[in-house]
Design a protein that fits this description.
Blueprint: E1 10-14, H1 16-41, E2 45-51, H2 55-64, E3 69-79, E4 87-94, E5 103-111, H3 115-126, E6 131-140, E7 151-156, E8 162-163, E9 179-182
Parallel strand pairs: 2-3, 2-5, 5-6, 6-7
Antiparallel strand pairs: 1-9, 3-4, 8-9
Helix pairs in contact: 1-2
């Protein structure tokens, strides 16, 4: 979809320029840590993308960093397919990454309840990671959150659903370069 085909129920909240600036800011905060890890351990910081949604932020973040890092991937399913905001009864995590003795940065698009990140942090620690930190594009402020990310590009107090830049409306709009607030959902029930 191009800009002319943008659904009317999506309202822009964070544009590409603002996202780029915020991602660069997070990268600048991570570079000294990545350099220190390399100096102390001789290994690159292991940066794990939580798929699917985290891929856009992950890619832009790694390209904005000046330090070399080692990318890796983990797939999680936290929401029911095609339904906005409806958490899956059971969190599914496919985490084939070896983390023993490594400094790990987990990267996702959003920390909402913190359920996904908290579980992947737990798995990393259980598998012997030397250190685990987290970075997200958006940290939604919730009183019931299980985790506060170490790094975030945006902090958002509202409860609305987002789409674009890896966030989805139903199963659509993930690839837009803007983050939108979903004003009305078109997701199937």
């Amino acid at each position: 979809m191009n800009r002319q085909q943008l659904p009317s129920h999506l309202e822009a909240i964070y544009g590409p320029d603002e996202i780029r600036i915020r991602v660069a800011t997070v990268a600048a905060r991570l570079d000294p840590w990545a350099a220190e890890i390399r100096k102390q351990s001789g290994q690159h910081l292991l940066v794990v993308c939580i798929l699917r949604g985290g891929v856009f932020f992950f890619s832009d973040l790694l390209q904005a960093m000046h330090e070399s890092v080692e990318p890796a991937f983990c797939r999680c399913h936290a929401y029911r397919k095609g339904v906005n905001g409806d958490a899956a009864a059971e969190l599914q995590v496919d985490f084939p990454v070896t983390v023993a003795g490594r400094a790990v940065l987990l990267v996702d698009n959003i920390c909402d309840s913190g359920r996904t990140l908290a579980e992947v942090v737990r798995l990393c620690r259980e598998r012997g990671a030397a250190e685990v930190r987290t970075a997200v594009l958006i940290h939604r402020l919730r009183e019931d959150s299980r985790l506060t990310p170490d790094h975030r590009a945006f902090t958002h107090p509202g409860t609305e659903w987002f789409a674009g830049y890896g966030l989805r409306d139903g199963d659509a709009a993930m690839n837009f370069p803007t983050v939108f607030r979903v004003v009305r959902s078109t997701a199937v029930s």
